[in-house]
Structures are given as structure tokens and as C-alpha cells.
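Here is one chain, start to finish.
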Amino acid sequence: MDKNLQYIRDVKMEDLPWNRLTTAYVRATAFPEYFATIENMSNKSKVKSALHEVLRNIEHQSTLWRATPFSMIFLVRIFKKAVAERNDNAAALLIVEELLWFFKLIAELFHETEQYKTEQKDDTKPLPYFGDMLREEFLFPEEADEEEEEAFWEEDVEKSCDEMFEQLWYSFYYYSYQVILTCKETLEKIDNAAFKEEVQQLQNLL
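Its structure:
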């Protein structure tokens, strides 16, 4: 099996330094708790709230973040479970609806990025392996006071022109899309008439 596909299949929640992965608003420290709530699927209101917190943090104004590709792994796992339970669980049905829309958005952003790269004759490649995005130089500092935290965000913007960091930024889109590709078979199982158009649109992007 391809090394990246194996990583997507096998990585565990506790393997990831969520407190060192940035999002649009905060670090992803609380993400394991959110994912646990969503995967439990026992309370529709709580699932909706947790899902909202994750989605609004990992995509903002077409920008993806360090936490995005890793979050996509767990969202796809939850999506597959929700598809199996959608007809008997209102929370599961909500998850399917929300994630179909979100996966389509991420796939569209990937294709837009590819088109832009083509137009700009930009040959930036993704980092070779999914786990490369966790290299120490890419992570939020293990311990940082308020001043150091502010400096990290400022330097992050400045580093965007660095070739290695260009690879990192592109990897957020590339690997998030690679994760979505693993749910092709699951999409085939969705026969709910209400989701037909969304499913077709997403399939066309994969």
C-alpha cells in the first residue's frame, strides 16, 4: 500500500500534536474532544455545534491550515460511519449533509489551486509524505508565551515565500484532497434522494 494511504488509514488521534497545529482562529487543542462528540452521534445539537467549530476553523475564506489535512482524516472516518447509520440516526444524517457540502468545498479549492499553479507556471510540489507536515520546523512552538506566540504568527506570513514553506502550504490542499479521494466507495452507497445532487457534484470533483 502507498505510504501516504497507509498513514491516512492508520494514524490515531493521539499520534497528532493538536496543540501545535494552527487553524483560522486558534490552535487545534480542543479538536479531539470535538471529534469524539461528532463520532458519538448521540446528540444532534452537540454534534452540530462541534462540527461547526471544526469546519469554521479548518477552512476560512478559501484558506486551509496546518490542522486541515489531519482533521480531514477523522472527518472522512466519521463520514463513512455516518453514511452507514444515516437512516436510523438524525445526527448521522446531519453529518452526512454537512460533510458532503464541506468535502465538495475542499475539492473545489484544490482544483482552483491546481488551476492557479498552471496559470502561474508554478511547479511547487507537495511534501513527499503526509507526516512531513509534522516536522518540527512547521509546528507551533511546544511552549510559547504571548509575545512568542504573536511572533510565530507574524513569521508564518513572512515564511510564505520560502520554498520549503510553499511546499507546506500547498500540501494542506493536496493532502486534504487525497483524504477525500478515499471516500469514493462510500459515496456510491448514498441513495438518499435529497443528497443526489451533492453526491454527484462531489464525485465529479474526485
